[in-house]
Amino acid sequence: MIFNETKTHEITVDVVILTLKNNAIQVLLVKRLNEPFKDKWAIPGGYVRLSENLDEAALRVLKERTNVDNIYLEQLYTFGDPLRHPNARVITCAYFALVRAEDLNIVTTDELAWFKVSDLPKLAFDHKDIIEYSMKRTRERLEICPVAYQLLNEKFTLTEMQKAYELIMSKELDKRNFRKKAIATEGLIELEEYTKSSSKRPARLYTFENIKLNSKRAHFISGKKKEKVK
Amino acid sequence: MIFNETKTHEITVDVVILTLKNNAIQVLLVKRLNEPFKDKWAIPGGYVRLSENLDEAALRVLKERTNVDNIYLEQLYTFGDPLRHPNARVITCAYFALVRAEDLNIVTTDELAWFKVSDLPKLAFDHKDIIEYSMKRTRERLEICPVAYQLLNEKFTLTEMQKAYELIMSKELDKRNFRKKAIATEGLIELEEYTKSSSKRPARLYTFENIKLNSKRAHFISGKKKEKVK
DNA sequence: CCCGTTATATATATAAAGTATAGAAATAGC
DNA sequence: GCTATTTCTATACTTTATATATATAACGGG
């Protein structure tokens, strides 16, 4: 590829939209309708308009695809390899969002679907790298603040919360110690409600008050892997 | 300002170059020769060439200004407010670098000089925000890895290391506890050399082996503020 | 309706890391 | 030699993290 220095850059935003569905962290992908990478799956994205800033562009893309507002959205990283787009010079500012499955009302189609991040299809551009980096960042965030509640329904059990942590961190945590530390988390509210679902003993429901995502006390991931009991 | 959606974006990199000089964290600034913000100080930067990626562009800017290689350089954040440049649409990908004063061989002039980050002049564009964010990120890095050694000379005393931590974190640390945790840091090597300078008892010199900037064990900043003794 | 199963919940012991404080050793200046 | 100053060692105390035992509540099968 020959670069003509008089050509200009194009700049896009791409948004990694993560949710918790079917006991797995899943990412929303769109199928590309045009070349390059026609028919490959890709992260939702779009050109940055001249009148909007990067956050606004990312929010617009997120809203177009999910119709949700008021979501955890954070700038992730800017990817600018000259060869990341095969026939143009496109720099993309990647964002990632954590959304509640409960809040979503997405009609998935042949061109818009959820995929487990642990089992991705062949992706367009460098989008695989971008998704992997978004998971790394999510883990880093979780180590310093209880950002996982962004993935939980409004009311949740401690077991559900632990499951979210385990899926993000890819390791098992000890139930009893998780409870102790979770309960000490700033912002967690104990409700006088219980699950009455199919399970055995009903579990107490909790919720998070809006919002303290800088709480240092909530990094309860350090626990060593619990050994699997036979 | 009216935005014409057919106009294209321009993309630059700006590099916050931090060092430790005269008992303060200092940043390298250049005086702008042209409008806008003529004669105001700014972070060194430049347009991203079509043939280079963002890291390469940042390295090039860093090398142009400081002639140092092999430096701690990290992408910081991308700033893209439509109004950040008064008469163009310039998105900038900001980087920050930590350099050793010892390695530098910069001739400072009327157009290139070091400024204490705690006492900055009036800056061009949003560069004040960018510098502040680079300090925040440096603090975050320091909480999880001993990145401060990037600012220290090759051989240093624990007192010098502590001083670097205190300057970055803007708080005093307890000397005895700092020593205990610093000595436990992975990668720190105790030398059989001592200072023989003007001070009282000679201090042992230490160095860092190349390089483990992901060591979790090195976040020894948590100490409570030592009360000032009268 | 008893009883085993399963998941929730509480209490407590042990280990590790973080914080606080006393004081000894080495040098320079007087 | 005495004092001031800085480096360096040792140790007690507090908090957090990890490990383990046991009780409680519902369900389902006989």
Keywords:
230 residues; homodimer; 23% helix; disordered C terminus; DNA-binding; alpha+beta; 3-stranded antiparallel beta sheet
What is this entry, summarized?
In chain A, 23% of the residues lie in helices and 27% in strands. With 230 residues, chain A is α+β, with helices and mostly antiparallel strands.
Your description of this structure?
The structure is a homodimer of 230-residue chains. The first copy, chain A, contains 4 helices and 10 strands. With 230 residues, chain A is α+β, with helices and mostly antiparallel strands. In chain A, strand 1 (10-21) and strand 2 (24-31) form a beta hairpin. The structure holds a DNA duplex (30 and 30 nucleotides).
SSE diagram, text form:
Two copies of one chain form a homodimer.
Chain A: E1 10-21, E2 24-31, E3 41-42, E4 45-47, H1 54-66, E5 72-79, E6 90-98, E7 112-116, H2 127-144, E8 156-157, H3 158-169, H4 175-183, E9 188-194, E10 204-208
Parallel strand pairs in A: 1-6
Antiparallel strand pairs in A: 1-2, 1-4, 2-3, 2-7, 5-6, 8-10, 9-10
Chain A binds a DNA duplex (30 and 30 nucleotides) through helix 4.
